[in-house]
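#struct-help
A.M.: can someone run this one for me? Single chain, 144 residues.
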Amino acid sequence: MKEKESRKEGRVRDLASAHPSAIDVASSAKAAGEKLRRLKTEKFPVAKDNKLVGRTNDPNPDRSAARFGHDPDSTTIGETGLSEAIYCYEDQSPDEAKKIMMDHGLAHMSVVDRDLRIVGIVSLKSLKALEAGKPSKPKKRKAA
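D.P.: on it. Structure tokens below:
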């Protein structure tokens, strides 16, 4: 019981993916759109040099760019208009992170240090699993 309690009271960094995969601000709208559709999300962190700069707010930035007459291959995600970055600090509790995500309707959220460098990405699914008493290990995946 103590182990379960300590994980629940731990830091959100312990639940975050080991390989943060934010979309680089210089990525094409086409590449960003493919990633967002693959992840089945529209709100995803955007970084420059591993530092959080904003988030996407459109599951199809490539299609939106094309609709306005821009080439999705040469238009960057940074040029499509980013929303305010939503994040939590690495030393915040899982409960605090879950509340931020629920308040903003996020499936994924950046976990940052105090300089806004991304140290991981946490999913709402993993936070809900922890709350239900089914701690899940973050998936080890290649950065996309």
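A.M.: thanks! The two ends are 37 Å apart (CA to CA).
D.P.: also worth noting: Residues 2-131 form a domain with the CBS-domain fold (CATH 3.10.580.10).
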